Amino acid sequence: MSGTRVIALILSGTLAGCVDPDLGALGNYLESQRARSDVINDGGLGVTPVYRAVPYTQDGARSPFRAYDERLPEAAASSRGSVPGPGRSPESLAVYDRQSLSLVGIIDIGGMRSALIRDPAGRVHDARVGDHVGTEFGEIVAIGDGGITLMERVAGEDGGWTERVSQWFLGDDA
Predict the structure, then answer these.
(1) Is residue 99 in a domain?
(2) Is the pLDDT of residue 67 over 90?
(3) How far is 169 from 143, CA to CA, in rounded Å?
(4) With b meaning 16 or more CB within 10 Å and e meaning fewer, what string describes 3-13?
(5) For residue 168, pLDDT beyond 80
(6) What SS3 state is found at 56?
């Protein structure tokens, strides 16, 4: 017997098992189920639920799909021109007195400069332009080859705020 005849014979035997001569019994069963009072007949599709929009409140939250960065948007945003005070969220280097910090390096990666600042505990922080340093509301306004430029806001004698520019060079103890 040829291979084609064997395959045809197997297929005909298999397909013969798919024939159900008692389809009437299935129809009767379905009719009895439709007639039951405890079964809800909704046409098979059910009730379409009403769509209710849910407000998304995590717009400003950190994305779980990006690497963690200590400089969250509030840390990288410049507060230049704003009055310093308790309303501004503290950043990691803004809680230390500037005299207790050490500028230990400047790095440039892909044109993005960062200052490496060591805190009193010995931890080195990566700071960029716009970050705040020290308790006198110092903001990094420039990072050069040998140091950084800070704009500090100090309380004036008249009760207002005075801005002063200071340079912090590598090797200086602030």
Answers:
(1) yes
(2) no
(3) 10
(4) eeeeeeeeeee
(5) yes
(6) coil
Quick one: how far is CA 15 from the chain centroid?
Answer: 56
Q: In what order do the strands lie in the sheet with 138-143?
A: 132-133, 138-143, 147-155, 161-169
- By CB atoms closer than 10 A (0-12, 13-18, 19+), residue 94 is buried
The domain total for the chain is 1
Helix, strand, coil proportions of the chain in percent (round to 5)? 20, 25, 55
- CB atoms inside a 10 Å sphere around CB 148: 26
Backbone φ, ψ for residue 106 (5° rounding): -130, 130
Alpha-carbon distance 76 to 104, whole Å?
A: 21
Domain extent, residue 109, equals 78-169
Rounded to whole angstroms, how far apart are CA atoms 151 and 137?
Answer: 8
| Gap between the Cα atoms of 88 and 11, Å rounded | 78
The SS3 assignment for 115 reads: strand
Q: Could you tell me if residue 54 is inside a domain?
A: no
Dihedral-angle region of residue 59 (phi above 0 means left; psi in -120 to 50 means alpha; beta otherwise) = alpha
Residue 141 has pLDDT above 90, yes or no: yes
CATH of the domain at 104: 2.30.30.830
Q: How far is CA 169 from the centre of its chain?
A: 34
- As a whole number of angstroms, the distance between CA 49 and CA 161 comes to 59
Q: Which alpha helices (H) appear in the chain, and where do they start and end?
A: 3-16, 23-35, 73-76
